[in-house]
Design goal:
alpha/beta, Rossmann fold, SIR2/SIRT2 'Small Domain', 6-stranded parallel beta sheet, 3-stranded antiparallel beta sheet, 9 strands, about 15% strand, binds nicotinamide-adenine-dinucleotide
Amino acid sequence: MNKVEEVIVLIKSKKVVAFTGAGASLESGIPTFRGRGGLWEKYDPRVYATLPFVFFTFLKNPDKISEFLIEFYEVLLRAEPNSTHYALAEFEKKGLLLGVITQNIDNLHQLAGTKNISELHGNAYKFRCRLCNRKKIKTKEEIRRFIDRLKRVKFRRRELIREILFFMGRCPCGARFIPSVVFFGQALPEEELVKAYDLIDKAEVFLSIGTSGVVYPAAGFPFYAKSRGCFLIEVNPENSEISGLADIKISDSANNFFSKILEIFDNF
Ligand code: NAD
């Protein structure tokens, strides 16, 4: 049996949980953060993704935040799920996958049809009330209109601040909605962590796809899964912090590997 066939047998016979990182969405057109052409080459994460600095930048230089949001959402809006996202959604539908734990914020698993998902780092389309934690999800169309408005306002500081606050909106409880995305230095959402641990506790196979394993606390999950006795499969063209733990290492791109899986899955 080759590795593709070995993985199919495991998926069909064991309880599997998937764990995904930026590499899973690379072939959907979203660069990884650390790879070449990644977002942080251009935008300093201390200014754009770390609290409280992002808040100061928003108040002082909303044009910087606006430029970042335009570029970030334009990449996200163009992206479509790839074979990785579709394969995982298909396995779940067939009752072969317990769920997905993702570090990605791009909503591509959900677009492909995955239902049971732990969004460890939030979701760029989702906003949460800062007081009561109520969630609301924006459509691609709403985001597109928001980006167009930001482009029209350009550098006018007050108007930019107003546009961004108006876009996020207010909760029926009166408090403001804020991004659900987890900023550097913020704790991960408890409900998502509980979901992730629950999935791993039920799993026999842990399928790690496209993650470097350096962003903690999420990077601790492969180690936790291994300590619980999970069989570990890694899909990553490069070696990562997780590779040493892997029982099967697939040195291929995620999209390529899952395309091969999907091709023969039903007839194998
Ligand atoms: P990372 O950027 O640290 O690592 C990406 C990993 O993907 C690397 O190990 C790389 O070798 C691997 N990779 C590259 N191309 C691949 C491919 N075609 N198929 C499979 N693997 C491939 O990403 P990370 O480990 O997810 O951690 C970075 C953080 O950045 C996470 O917190 C994540 O939330 C965030 N992030 C999210 C997105 C997104 O939502 N799509 C994009 C960039 C970063």
